[in-house]
Amino acid sequence: MIEIKNLSKTFHTAEGEVQALKNVSLSIADGDIFGIIGMSGAGKSTLVRTINMLERPTAGSVVIDGVDMGALSDRELRQKRREITMIFQGFNLLMQKTCLENVCFPLKLSGLRGEKKWREQRALELLDIVGLKDKAKAYPAQLSGGQQQRVAIARALATNPKVLLCDEATSALDPTTTSSILELIRSINEKTGITVIIITHQMSVVESVCRHVAILDGGVIAEQGAVGEVFAHPKSAAAKRLVFPEGEAMTGYAVPGERTIRVVFNGSEATSTPLIAHMAVEMGIEANIAYASTRTIDGREYGSMLLGIRVGGDAVERAIAYMNAAEGVLAEEVEF
Known about the structure:
Helix content is 33%, strand content 32%. The chain is of the alpha/beta class. Residues 246-250 have low confidence and may be disordered.
């Protein structure tokens, strides 16, 4: 269990004080994939760096498995950091070392030295897990961005950590590569039980892999909960901006004479015939698609849309019931 309690961080700059975090509190269960999302400047990277005390908080505490990270001596903190590893947007591989040597490197630093043969065998096992055993003797410059991130993940796993911190780890990758990296992280989480914390500004990343999410806005937790619930029923202005990037411009979707339904696809099975077309054929309900932002990931649909249905009768109620009966779909009427 990771417990972040009343955490604040203030930076002193030439322009004055900057409060990056303000009284942040979170609980992250063992084995969870937890997303922390926000726009640039929200305090995401500062928050993740306080978890392993790369940044010391101004106030509050970070408690991991009952251990107050801020109370540890430098030596004790180095020992604890073996259990908390991190991957970054820029991969941070040692360019002059092979993939095998990169994965071996933390084993040397951690004191888990063993014989060279043992370290290399462990590194090969990890490269195999990330699908790059055949690249053991290659150098990072010879790899694609996605392959470099896979090597970084293998390196992060070398010391059998309990927590994996991902700081914008897919931001530099194209959508297809991002999807494969997230699927790899999900697979590792399922196989090892490692707790994963993903820092991102992309709602699509949270939707596709995280189970719980906290939305950070101006250094404050604006909203948190299960991903499906937060995505389906965003309450805070920050959450609504992320779920609907158009923000307040959504008010322009309201059409006189129509009632509006918001439909959220949170992992519904993708089919050759869209749900809205099915509804029109089977229920005789015609809907005007006013807004849509959906995508298919591993055969499942994620995203949202706004439907306009003419006022009169019980068409809106029947449409909501029809769509809510589908797996992974949430529908509700909204007013602007």
